[in-house]
Design goal:
10 strands; 19% strand; 2 domains; D-Maltodextrin-Binding Protein, domain 2; alpha/beta
C-alpha cells in the first residue's frame, strides 16, 4: 500500500515540476522551496557552476513528500543509473532510513557522495546548572539515570533524542530507556524547559542556542563535532571530554546506486571543490553552518555507521521493532 501511494505521489510531483532538459545536471531537493534541502541544492549547485566545477547550471527540482521518501523512491525506482542526478540530503535522511520511515527502502539503495557543512549538535544546561562539564552530567546519569531529563526539538526517537543516547552509550551506560526525554515544538521551547528547571539539559543544534548563549541563559557543555566550532572556540567537543560522539545535522548529497565509480568520484571531486571555495565559506557563515567535510568513500562509511547506530538505538527505545 505504501509503495503504491509513493508511486502515485511521485507521478504527481514529477508532472508538477516539468521536464528537465536532456543531458542537464539536476539536483532534487526533497522538500518545498525555502528549506534546508532546497538551500543545499541551490547553493551547492550555484557554486559548482560559478567556480567551473560544472559547465552548465544545475537545475533544481523540488519534490516534497514523505519527509524525503518520495524523492528517495523516485531515484531508486526511476533514476537508478542517472549520472547527471544529485539529491540533497541531511542527517534527517539517514535517521529516517535507519528507522524504516521510507516504506521499507534502505540506505544502501543509493550512494552518499559527501557533506560539506553542518549545523553542529550541542548539549546545553541552564546558566545556574550545577553541571560544569559533560563529564559532570554523565556522572549524574550514571548515579541516578531516572532523575536526569533532556529536552529537544524533535519527537521521541528523533535526532535530538538520539544525541544524548549516543553520549551515554559511549560512556558505558547500557540502559538507555532510563533516560527521560521531552520532545517539544522546536529548540526554543526545549531551552525554555531547561532554563525553567523542568529538564536538566537540552539537546539541539548550534543555530538554535546561539542567542541564548549570548544572552547568558544557558551554558554549553559540549559541541558534537570533531573540532571546536569557529566563533565558539570556548565550547569543548564531546571527543575532547573522552566521549567519541559526532552528531551534526550535515548538509550533503547522494547519487543513484547504479552510477559508475567514475561518476561517483566525479561528483565527490566537484563537491570537494565547492568545500574548498571562498564562495562556500561565505555561504556557511551567512547561514550558520560549521565546517564538516567528508566526501567520497569516507562519507559513505560515515553514513553506514550512523545508520547502523541509529537503528540499534531506535530498537532499544522502541521506535522500531
Amino acid at each position: 500500500m505504501k509503495n503504491r501511494l509513493f508511486k502515485a505521489l511521485m507521478t504527481g510531483a514529477v508532472m508538477s515540476v516539468g521536464a528537465v532538459s536532456a543531458n542537464a545536471n539536476e539536483c532534487i531537493a526533497p522538500a518545498n522551496p525555502g528549506g534546508g534541502w532546497d538551500f543545499t541544492c541551490r547553493q551547492i549547485g550555484k557554486i559548482m557552476h560559478d567556480i567551473g566545477a560544472v559547465d552548465k547550471p544545475i537545475q533544481v527540482t523540488n519534490m516534497a513528500g514523505a519527509g524525503g521518501g518520495l524523492a528517495f523512491n523516485h531515484v531508486v525506482s526511476e533514476r537508478n543509473d542517472d549520472a547527471e542526478l544529485i539529491v540533497a540530503a541531511s542527517s534527517a535522511t539517514s535517521t529516517r532510513l535507519a528507522q524504516n520511515a521510507y516504506a521499507g527502502m534502505t540506505a544502501d539503495q543509493v550512494r552518499f557522495v559527501g557533506a560539506i557543512g553542518a549545523d553542529p549538535g550541542v548539549i546545553v544546561v541552564a546558566a545556574d546548572s550545577p553541571y560544569q562539564s559533560l563529564g559532570d552530567l554523565v556522572s549524574a546519569i550514571q548515579e541516578n539515570p531516572g532523575e536526569i531529563a533532556f529536552a529537544g526539538g524533535s519527537a521521541v526517537g528523533g535526532f535530538d533524542h538520539l544525541k544524548p543516547l549516543m553520549i551515554i552509550q559511549r560512556a558505558g551506560i547500557d540502559n538507555v530507556k532510563a533516560i527521560k526525554y521531552i520532545g517539544v515544538d522546536g529548540g526554543a521551547d526545549a531551552i525554555t524547559q531547561t532554563v525553567g528547571g523542568f529538564t536538566q539539559a537540552m539537546s539541539g543544534d548550534m543555530s538554535e542556542v546561539v542567542g541564548f548563549l549570548k544572552s547568558g541563559d544557558v551554558r554549553a557543555l559540549a559541541v558534537l563535532t570533531e573540532e571546536r566550532v569557529p566563533g565558539f572556540e570556548d565550547i569543548p567537543t564531546a571527543m575532547e571530554q573522552g566521549l567519541e560522539v559526532v552528531a551534526v545535522n550535515w548538509r550533503g548529497l547522494y547519487v543513484p546506486k547504479g552510477v559508475s565509480d567514475d561518476t561517483f568520484n566525479m561528483w565527490a571531486e566537484r563537491l570537494q571543490k565547492v568545500a574548498d571555495s571562498a564562495e562556500w565559506q561565505e555561504a556557511m557563515a551567512a547561514n550558520g553552518l560549521a565546517p564538516f567535510t567528508k566526501v567520497g568513500g569516507d562519507f559513505q562509511s560515515y553514513v553506514d555507521e550512523v545508520v547502523a547506530e541509529i537503528r540499534t538505538l531506535s530498537k532499544e527505545i522502541g521506535v522500531i521493532q
